[in-house]
Description:
This is ABC-type quaternary amine transporter. By secondary structure, this protein is an alpha/beta fold. Helix content is 32%, strand content 26%. The chain is built from six helices and ten strands. The chain has a six-stranded mixed beta sheet with strand order 6-7-8-3-9-10, with helices on both faces. A four-stranded antiparallel beta sheet has the order 2-1-4-5, covered by helices on one side. It is globular and about 50 Å long.
Amino acid sequence: MLTLRDVSVKYGDALAVDDVSLDLPAGDVLAVLGPSGCGKSTLLRAVAGLEPLTSGGSIELDGRDLAGVPTHRRGFALMFQDGQLFVHLTVARNVAYALRLRRTPAARVRGRVAELLELVGLQGYDDRHPGTLSGGERQRVALARALAVEPSLLLLDEPLSALDRSLREHLAGELREILVAARTTALLVTHDHEEAFALADRLAVMRAGRVVQSGGIDEVWRAP
Ligand code: ADP
Ligand code: ADP
């Protein structure tokens, strides 16, 4: 369970995130939905440990305060809009990247890469390079790479926004199934309410730094 209590982030005198409190139970997908500039990415970065909180706020994972825990020790995975694959590495090497950094034995890496590529529907893509993949395929590789280390929390910043509309609709359903199958706890930020409703169990609506509404996906008012 991820718990945000009175989380605020300032840039100079400007409050980009203003007193946000949220709970994200283990295994759930929470979407933070709001217009550009409302503070979504800043909130995500704060959870990742990339922005300091103002005093009084806290972020806890399973009851453990993350204050002072650096990004690389939080056990989280991040996935951004454009996937950001390593273009000079094959699909398999991209997926294996974090495992190899951790000096995981080669046999174990091979097994895990096969498992992950199957999970995202890309069996047999091991030796392809990112430049030869479609946008949707690249996003699925990015997702496999993010899931490789079984993150305690997956942070997604507009994961489908860079894709065209039909691909986005198609991949949203798949991504949801993958997240459920991997039993991943995920925090997603997006300006796209279709993306939020397609992927999330819970929704928090953000405006000008504040969460103005939150609850289960069926409880929160559907924006037209
Ligand atoms: P969103 O992700 O919802 O588009 P952001 O979190 O990127 O919003 O930005 C929230 C507010 O903080 C905006 O007013 C933005 O201009 C400001 N902001 C974001 N990053 C910085 C920064 N590094 N320095 C100063 N202001 C920033
Ligand atoms: P520094 O390395 O500047 O001394 P800290 O050790 O205070 O920073 O924090 C390490 C990381 O944890 C920083 O990236 C910071 O953004 C983040 N952080 C600081 N306070 C909190 C908090 N109360 N809850 C969650 N994260 C925090």
